[in-house]
Queue: 4 jobs
Job 1
Amino acid sequence: MGLATFKGGIHPPDKKTLAANSPITEAKPPKIVVLPLSQHAGAPCKPVVTIGQEVKKGEMIGEPGGFVSAPVHASVSGKVVAISEFPNAMGRMVNSIVIENDLKEEWTALKDAPDYMNLPVEELKEKIKAAGIVGLGGAAFPTAVKLSPPKEKPIDVVIINGAECEPYLTADYRLMIEKPKEIVEGLKILMKVLGVTKGFVGIENNKPDAVAKMSEAAKGEAGITVMALEVKYPQGAEKMLIKAIAGREVPARGLPMDVGAVVQNVGTALAIYEAARYGKPLIERVVTVTGEGIKEPKNLMARVGAKISDLIDECGGLKDDVAKVVAGGPMMGFALSSLDVPVTKGTSGILVLPEEGVVHAEDYGPCIRCGRCIDICAMGLMPSMLSILSEKGLYEEAKAYNLFDCFECGSCAFVCPSKRPIVQLVRLAKSMVKP
């Protein structure tokens, strides 16, 4: 019997050996942090501090701006020196709070709750919401919202995403190796909050030591199963993971809750445990700094708001032939125009690529109708038509080809012999029409 997987997908070189054996190390406290008030899906936060105010580490500085939102907390202690718009990794200007670190590392009051599993469900949900936890796999959707499905959408399975199918990135892998018990505790909290008895951890089979560590941590835990998955990109996408593990198809334009599932990243599970146990807000995360263009690839526990340049300096700096620095991985990441942008809750990696092998935007050609992108599309779409229609400005026509079912995994662009920027053209079309 083969390993669990889905139809379609590709097999890009995983390049994980660059950083896989680098244990998680604490990054140096940054001198300045820039904390965007919109680093999650949904409404931006509203500032609750003023310029000149002294704040402590873990103190809330931005309150949620709506139901789909998440608070933002100070990742250092110090003085608020600016509240203004600053660019994020995608080049957008975002209202942000700048704090000058006093290097005292003074925490706001945290409350240990060793009996967290005995707390009422509503209290656990409030702890998760107050901690500002979002999906750490990249989507950054507020976790408290995922844990509040409508009554007509009952949940019966929770899946922890340990696939980490994006090439180069090893942050989740290191967490599973170093903190497996805490991740399992996070899963147990999720299962309690959602009232389910079935929990899964899905891990690609190229991480056998992570499968072993997580299996040992889950041993004896009722209803929890660790599953090895086929190594195939985009195995870690929510809909693919649900198909591989639960055998359920999320409908077009649908959500995991439509088939009774909730999916959370391993980093999110750890953050949930730390919030429930210690009341710790989400002010830091593991970031893989890797690629052939960085001198010392590492997995760093980095503060939210630290500059990308700070993390690169901590890894020995850039090599001489660097062509691109990407926030995220090579398939779904964004090329950075500046290294002064901040780490956010959704920053899973910093990828530094040398000139050799990098495809530049002007190098692409016309679609030759080969059909490769259609064959490998995990969503069963026609990426070639989406890109052609977008290129011609026929954005409304692209909707007829299920434009919004594309989750921009990049598989189509990877196999395209004409090196067409299919994902960028899809994003353009999405930005020009209403869902």
Note: Residues 47 and 62 are 4 Å apart (CA to CA).
Job 2
Amino acid sequence: MLKLHGTPKSRNFRCIWAAEEAGIPYEIVPIGLGAPVRSDTFLKVNPNGKVPAMEDGDLVLFESLAINLHIAAKVGAPLCPVGDDYSRALQWTLWAATEVEPAAGQWAFNAYIRPASERDTGQAAAGAAGVAARLDVLEGQLTRPYILGDDFTIADCNLASVLYGAWGNKFDFGGHTRVKAWLDRCFGRPAALVARKLRDAA
């Protein structure tokens, strides 16, 4: 059984969703932020002192999107595509991490995460502009129900999960109707609903 370390309100949400999509049994080890992630016990699991982390037998992984790629590979297609589509799934996963997440985080911290007195409206606007620029790219690629075609894959899980905060916190998707419909489709999936319920209850 997979052990997924981290509260469902953390990036562990992504891994819980992937495990649900894969139909793989898992246990949530609810490590909170702060002192728990700096404990000697947890640092043996993730020396970075961050969540999530995963244990799968003798294999220990950190980085949520890498964990998700591992989970998908355990069950194969369609969640983990093959051939050229596997390379495309890697492309979109890395794009989510390097292009989308920094801008989405900049917007989120200054739009709703930090206390109102600590938010910087200029940083929020810059983050929003950065997200919108990436959504322009994605809008042009979403010509079918999911990123790689008719089947939901780990590329959808990874990219959509990076955009979950924007989707759930009233980011302006105006002009990106395909992206908004795709996100609605992804987060309405039964596996996503389970992960969302766990996140909301945490």
Note: Residues 104 and 166 are 7 Å apart (CA to CA).
Job 3
Amino acid sequence: MILDTLARLDGKALIAATVHAFPGRVAVTSSFGAESAVLLDLVAQVDPALPVIFLDTGELFDETLDYRYALERRLGLSHVVVVRPTESERTEAGDLWRTDPDRCCHLRKVLPLARAVAGYDVLIDGRKRAHGFGRDALPTVQVSGAVIKVSPLATWSEQQVEAAFAARSLPRHPLVGQGYRSVGCWPCTRPTKPGEPARAGRWAGSAKTECGIHTVPLGTAKDQ
């Protein structure tokens, strides 16, 4: 079975094999966050015209928006698709991040992504087991609702990620130098303290660890 074959690969080899196995039916999802350059560099080496879906929630750091353009130019990515919540979703979301962050993420991320990925069979993402918080056993290939999710860097350690940045002279997200090891929306992201996991600065002080785009099976997301 093709998925079993893909599951034995990782990194660039997994991306290339996935694109070959599902021609015209693969997209990449990227936050253009702290470690995104590593995955996007591998994608660009395989096919710089592969669709890269970027969720602009309306609450991103200005530095993230600037970084997106910098990486797009540097890597030669020619098909970045910017996805945003509708006006009604933005209005309802308002400042729900203060009182109901799950609903805020649902409106700003889950629903827009569900619309954007319609028509794709495979989504490539940059999740890693090293991030912890429920990702410790993340497979490189998994079925999620109506799509197949491929995580080429799932097994990569922090050291491997750092080595890729160095080997390819990849630019860093501007906020990494300020202690942000994972970058999401500005109201719900803080710098990571020494010794904390990379994603400890996301929704700090709450039990929330995921926005929902990787936990709600795609093809099943709907407004509530």
Note: The chain has a mean pLDDT of 92.
Job 4
Amino acid sequence: MTQPDPRVGTAPVCPRHPDRVAYVRCQRCGRPTCPECQVPSAVGIHCVDCARSASSRRRGVRTALGGNVVADALVTKLLVGTCVVVYAVQMVYPALAGWFDFVPALAAGQPWRFLSTALLHASLLHLALNMWALWVLGNSLEPLLGRWRFTALTALSALGGSTAIYWLAAPTSPSWITGTVGASGAIFGLFAAVFVIQRRFGRDTSTIVGLLVINLVISVVGANISWQGHLGGFITGLLVSAIYAWAPRERRTAVGVWGTVGVAVALVGLAVARALLV
């Protein structure tokens, strides 16, 4: 029978593996650590417990605007996928649009229409153009803003577009009972965000300004296009993205959260005020 070496009893052993002699000590806590429990670091060897503790306290990597770094534009993909699925359902059940489009005359009693309208589209070309714009803008903005800021920017821009339609439609005009659909209000908000962020970092904005001018002209002179929704989404996008872009570095999260809440409350307040005036 093999006899245990008496020297092992006096040698330092790894706390996680007491049967293993460990002469290497953790640079943080000073405990012995065996090769399996050693984590190399810039200042020596750490044990797995200290390495895990340090990792949990370490702040995540942030983007230039303070957002959490994300591997891909997940929210953008989900939004595009949702709009495509909803359009497919529209083709099977055309009545869906009548339940979820934005009709000013129905807005007070059916407030979900303020946002649900952004998921609907009038034609395949309408869907294709909006989804292309959303894909391009989302893949640029979401990694920079982070997921929650990008989601808030998109949703508030859609809400701002519907709110503008609500205020600018006269109760005595046909537009009061006409339904509007599309993610264009949200997309104009994303266009506005690209402009604001480029200005924030001192980059050339001539390209985005040219695109905005072209789209705004098309919105005004084109047939069956809600320029009111585009304008409302654009103004909301300007405001929200300015809050994110110019928030003080040391207070980005607080300013971003409360700024987002403030814009949301203001838009809801405008919608309620309009409903009371009708």
Note: Residues 11 and 103 are 80 Å apart (CA to CA).
